[in-house]
Amino acid sequence: MSMTSLVAQTLQRQIFCGTYQPGSMLPGQRELADSMGISRASLREALSMLEALGFVRSVPGKGTLVTRGTEQPSSTPAERGDAPDLQQLWQFRFCMEPASAALAARNMPADQAPRLWGLQARMEDIAITRDMVSASAADLDFHRLVAELSGNRHLQQLMWSFDSEIGRAVQLPFAETDRIHDVLHEHRAIAAAISLGDADGARTAMQNHLRSSARTLGLGFVEP
Fold this sequence. Notes:
Blueprint: H1 3-16, H2 29-36, H3 40-52, E1 56-59, E2 63-66, H4 77-80, H5 83-107, H6 113-129, H7 132-149, H8 153-161, H9 163-171, H10 179-195, H11 199-216
Antiparallel strand pairs: 1-2
Helix pairs in contact: 1-3, 1-7, 2-3, 5-7, 5-10, 5-11, 6-7, 6-10, 7-9, 10-11
C-alpha cells in the first residue's frame, strides 16, 4: 500500500473511531502532517483521496471539514464541474477495459486464476470492515490485473499510463458506501467470465460494471 493510502486509511480509522467527529474541522495541514510524521504533500494527497471517498470536504478559507454521516457523501460531477473530463475518461475506459477483459478470457493461463479470485476474496473481506480506502485500492488492483491478464503489453502499458486518473475514478463511486456490494457482484461476474474463457461474457460484464459506476456518479457519457 502506498504512503498516501496508509495516511488516508489512518485518518479514515480516526474518523470511524470518533477522534475526528463528523461536522468538525480537522487540524490544520501543518499541524496534522507534523503529528503524523509525514510531509504536507503526502497529507494533501491523502485528503484528496478521502474527499473523493466522501469522508471530508475542503472548505475554502476554513480548512477540512469531516463530512462522513452529516451530509450527502459527495456532490455530483456536474455540481463539481468535472463532468466533461470524467465523461471522456469513461469513454476511454469503455474502449479499453472491456477489450482487456475479453482478451483475458481468451489468454489467461489457468495458473493465474487464483490471482484473480484472490483479489475478489480480498475485496469480500474488506466489505465486512467497510474500509473504503482499501476497497478502492483493491478495485484498482482488479482492473490493473485484468489488463495484465489480457496478454497485450500495450493495453497494460496504457492502463498504467492513466493509473492516477483511473485510480481517482474508481474512488469516486465509493463515496456511496453501499456501492461496495455492487462492485463485489460486478467483479465476480467479470472474474467468472474470464475464468470460463467466455470472452463475450467478460466484455459484457466489464461494460455493465462501467455503466453501473457511471450511474452511481450521475454521470452520462456517450458509449463509443
